[in-house]
From TrEMBL:
Zn(2+) binds at C128, C131, C153, C156. Keywords: Metal-binding, NAD, Transferase, Zinc. CDD domains: SIR2-fam. This is protein acetyllysine N-acetyltransferase. InterPro entries: DHS-like_NAD/FAD-binding_dom (IPR029035), NAD-dep_sirtuin_deacylases (IPR050134), Sirtuin (IPR003000), Sirtuin_cat_small_dom_sf (IPR026591), Ssirtuin_cat_dom (IPR026590). It comes from Amycolatopsis melonis. SUPFAM superfamilies: DHS-like NAD/FAD-binding domain.
Length: 251
């Protein structure tokens, strides 16, 4: 690893980490926009991730639920990158993870839930779009697997939707405001495995830079924020994130 990078990040005490789908691919969860990504291989699959289509078309909902009933994330385990970030927090560094992922792997790796801000929601709960009642997703998927391919709310009959942010749906203002405050307070901001194409989450990089933070981007492909970064790493995420965390600790 570059000596200048090590010197720059050694001893950082307030670290904000933005994570995208790329951090979970080593756990067996496919990304969306990569060469083998879900939407690259099946562009029509994006239809099921659009709120307007999801609400209007039972066929889209059936495809969505079929996709998530067999989703790899239910079987996935945290990988070395997830564990390294949790270990960094355990070593006494103030780590806050702002994740675009909905898989819950940061928490399973050992980070306290209060230190993980799920910008795009979570796949582990499901909410009624009508009465707003929330249900554990495994309970809903059990209904899907039993043959109810477009499950309705058992309380009011409304449309059920995973607690995730779909295209056409705005991020929770309180969550986004909290994320911006974390980015602005960080001394080191690391974006890992994100294409940085989805706003407003990607703009957290700019918030951090404008506040004076060092910006490190770890991603296989170029991003729109590479020119703003102090360091851009194209290395394997599962290998390089533990090295970054060790450098921050000074070990």
């Amino acid at each position: 690893m570059d000596a200048h990078l090590i010197d720059r990040i050694r001893g950082a005490r307030r670290v904000a980490v933005l994570t995208g789908a790329g951090i979970s691919t080593a756990s067996g969860i496919p990304d969306y926009r990569g060469p083998e990504g879900v939407w690259t291989r099946t562009p029509s699959a994006m239809n099921a991730f659009t709120l307007k289509n999801f609400r209007a078309d039972p066929g889209v909902r059936r495809e969505f639920w079929r996709t998530y009933a067999g989703h790899a994330a239910w079987r996935a385990e945290p990988n070395a990158a997830h564990r390294a970030l949790a270990d960094l927090d355990g070593a006494g560094v103030a780590v806050r993870v702002l994740t675009q992922n909905v898989d819950g792997l940061h928490q399973r790796a050992g980070l306290a839930a209060r230190k993980v801000l799920e910008l795009h929601g979570t796949m582990h709960t499901t909410r009624c779009t009508g009465c707003r009642q929330r249900f554990p997703t495994p309970e809903v998927l059990a209904r899907v697997q039993a043959g109810d391919d477009d499950p309705a709310c058992e309380r009011c009959g409304g449309i059920l939707k995973l607690d995730v942010v779909l295209f056409g749906q705005t991020l929770d203002g309180e969550v986004l405001g909290h994320a911006r405050n974390i980015a602005a307070a960080s001394g080191l901001f690391v974006a890992i495995g994100s294409s940085l194409q989805v706003e407003p989450a990607a703009s957290l990089c700019s918030v951090a830079v404008q506040a004076g933070a060092t910006l490190v981007i770890v991603n296989r492909d170029p991003t729109p924020y590479d020119d703003d970064a102090d360091f851009v790493l194209r290395q394997d995420i599962e290998a390089v994130v533990p090295q970054l965390c060790a450098a921050i600790r000074g070990s």
